[in-house]
């Protein structure tokens, strides 16, 4: 049986941490940015981890 291929579109948007979690960028950063407060934009700059419920689905997309 051949190995499953990783979904390249997903692997370009995500990095795998040492503990195996997925690190991702936040959404809503550029669209209609002038209407957002400085605090909102500052918090959106920081990366975050994929939630547990999404991780269960996403781990099939990345072959480690």
Sum up the structure in keywords.
64 residues; 12% strand; 3 strands; alpha+beta; 3-stranded antiparallel beta sheet; 3 helices; Factor Xa Inhibitor
What can you see in these coordinates?
By secondary structure, this protein is α+β, with helices and mostly antiparallel strands. The chain has one domain (about 10-60): Factor Xa Inhibitor (Irregular). About 35% of the residues lie in helices and about 10% in strands. It has helices at about 10-15, 40-45, 50-60, and strands at about 15, 20-25, 50. A 3-stranded antiparallel β-sheet has the order 1-2-3. The longest helix is centred in the middle third of the chain and has 8 residues, at about 40-45. It starts with 7 loop residues before the first helix and ends in a 6-residue tail after the last helix. The mean pLDDT is about 90.
In short:
With 64 residues, this protein is of the alpha+beta class. It has helices at residues 8-13, 38-45, 52-58; strands at residues 14-16, 22-24, 48-49. It contains three helices and three strands; from the N terminus they run αββαβα.
CATH architecture group name: Irregular
Class inferred from helices and paired strands: alpha+beta
Quickly count the helices.
Answer: 3
Percentage of residues assigned to helices: 25-40%
Strand tally is 3
Number of domains: 1
Return the string of H and E elements.
Answer: HEEHEH
Stated plainly, the CATH topology is called Factor Xa Inhibitor
Shape: elongated
Uncertain parts: none
- Tell me, rounded to a whole number, the average pLDDT: 92
Largest sheet: 3 strands, antiparallel
User: According to CATH, what is the class?
Assistant: Few Secondary Structures
């Amino acid at each position: 049986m051949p190995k499953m291929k990783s979904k390249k579109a997903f692997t370009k948007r995500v990095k795998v941490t040492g503990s195996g979690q997925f690190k991702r960028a936040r959404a809503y950063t550029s669209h209609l940015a002038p209407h957002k407060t400085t605090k909102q934009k500052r918090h959106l700059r920081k990366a975050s981890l994929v939630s547990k419920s999404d991780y269960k689905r996403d781990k099939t997309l990345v072959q480690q």
